[in-house]
Amino acid sequence: MKKSNKFSPEVRERAVRMVQEHRGEYPSLWAAIESIAPKIGCVPQTLNEWVKRDEVDNG
């Protein structure tokens, strides 16, 4: 069964960019993700996967 993509690539890119831009305002990467995920409308685990994938894809 194929997973449906609830979020467009643009939303994913924006969410990852928000984490990267605001990372320094939080004591940890996870804290930044937990704060930003609800603003996007996803769970922190999902946003964490996007961030990890972006790090692999873009170094």
Count of beta strands: 0
Whole-number tally of structural domains: 1
| Integer-rounded radius of gyration | 11 Å
Overall CATH architecture: Orthogonal Bundle
Q: Oligomeric state of the chains? A: single chain
- State the helix count: 3
Terminal CA distance: 30 Å
Structural class: mainly alpha
Low-pLDDT windows of residues: none
Largest sheet properties: none
Mean pLDDT: 94
CATH superfamily: Winged helix-like DNA-binding domain superfamily/Winged helix DNA-binding domain
Q: What proportion of the residues is helical, as a percent range?
A: 55-70%
**CATH-derived topology:** Arc Repressor Mutant, subunit A
What is the element string, with H for helices and E for strands? HHH
In what range is the share of β-strand residues?
under 5%
Tell me, briefly, the overall form. Answer: globular
Please identify the top-level CATH class.
Mainly Alpha
Give a quick precis of the structure.
With 59 residues, the protein is mostly helical. It has helices at residues 9-22, 29-40, 44-58.
